Amino acid sequence: MKVLALNSSLRQDGESRTELMLTHLVKGMRDAGAEVEVVNLREKEINYCMGCFSCDTITPGQCIIQDDMSRELYPKWLASDLCIYATPLFHWTMNAPMKAFIERTWPVMQPFFVKSDNGRWVHPPRHESPKAVVLSVAGFSEDWIFASLSNYANFLWGRNGKLVAEIYRPGAMFMTSLDPEKLADILGATEQAGRELAMENRVLPETLARAQQPVADLETVAKAANMFWQTCIDEGVNPKAFNERIRIPRPHSLEDYLFLMQLAFSAKNAGDAKAIVQFEFTGEVTGDCHIVVDNGKMQTNIGKAAQPNAIFRAPFELWMDIASGKANAIQMFMAGKCSAEGDLPLLMRMSQWFGLSPS
After folding, report:
1. What is the dihedral of CA 41, 45, 49, 55, to 10 degrees?
2. Best label site of 125, 219, 251, 293, fewest CB within 10 Å?
3. Candidates 3.30.1050.10, 3.30.930.10, 3.20.70.20, 2.160.10.10; correct CATH number of 253-353?
4. Cα distance between residue 73 and residue 81, in whole Å
């Protein structure tokens, strides 16, 4: 099987979830013996179709625009058995680079009108086009978000039997912060989908369900996403800069702080640890809360603990600076801006439970 895999994501440097999913899909196809060429559309010159119809009349079957599409990509597309259209979801459908590519495949059609078997008037094909797989990712966490893209894909390729599979990954913005086992299952299923495409020309329903499984409870996703975006707005950064410099959304209440601790807690890193840790906050947010860690599980509570192993006291805003890496915990303790009593080395161990290292 000869496969052309198109990636229309403009993101680079490991930021693209479209590319992440496509990479694993392609790996599975190659493992099963398919010949796959991956093309990043961001690296190609693809001008817009002008609607001049010269490809119908003056140069039948050939676009008169001379660019990477006409010289390289269109011939490769025609020669492929299968084309993977991998696009991030932009404004409810495919993004502009992918749409431009598809519009430039018009030379595959003839300009004449003929009536199809179902009674519709259509343009007859000039050449056989490749079968299609549509792969897309979206930040939204519900499947309905892909409805417009799916409708378009089925209109283009489904009605003529060319659409082999649709693989949609909702909640993609959280993929790289997932529990490693869950992420491995999603990406493993995506590789399996590639193998099935190469060997059986389809993706089994159970494989698709694993690749598209929910990343988290929708209420949890929405709350985390809103905290993330508010932090980006407050700090004046885009998501890339957030991931490079900030990494942790900034809570503005005890409830939000405990919520983030639950998200960040690693049962694997905590191991068999047992501890009760109390936080006493002053400043812009005043109040007490505590966590209970016991054999890989954590409970969070508002209020004081009966017998904490350690108590940390600090202005809330300063502790959030420490948690997000803006302030050095040891320096702040040495300067007397925050204090602790009880099991002081617990601070070092706590950082491991949440996948962090103390500043």
Report:
1. -110
2. 219
3. 3.30.1050.10
4. 14
Nearest Cα to Cα of residue 76 among 163, 156, 3: 3
Q: Which amino acid is at 272?
A: D
C-alpha distance from residue 161 to each of 21, 109, 155, 306, 353 (Å): 24, 16, 10, 66, 51
What is the DSSP secondary-structure string of 329-353? Answer: HHHHHHTTSSEEEE-TTHHHHHHHH
> Which are the contacts of 184, defined by CB distance < 8 A and separation ≥ 6?
none
Please state which of the four CATH numbers 3.40.50.360, 3.30.110.170, 3.30.450.20, 3.40.50.2300 is assigned to the domain occupying 2-211.
3.40.50.360
**144, 111 Cβ separation under 8 angstroms:** no
Of residues 195 and 160, more confidence is placed in 195
Assigned token pair, 335:
């300067």
Q: Crossing angle for the helix pair 254-264 and 218-235, nearest 10 degrees?
A: 110
Q: What are phi and psi of 92, to 5 degrees?
A: 80, 0
Three-state DSSP at 170 gives: coil
355 pLDDT band, cuts 50/70/90, is low
**If we measure between CA atoms, which residue out of 72, 41, 70 comes closest to residue 54?**
70
In angstroms, the Cα distances linking 330 to 8, 249, 325, 326, 348 are 46, 22, 12, 12, 10
- Residue 347 CA to residue 329 CA, distance in Å, equals 9
Q: For 169-199, write each residue's pLDDT tens digit.
A: 999 988 877 778 899 999 999 999 999 999 9
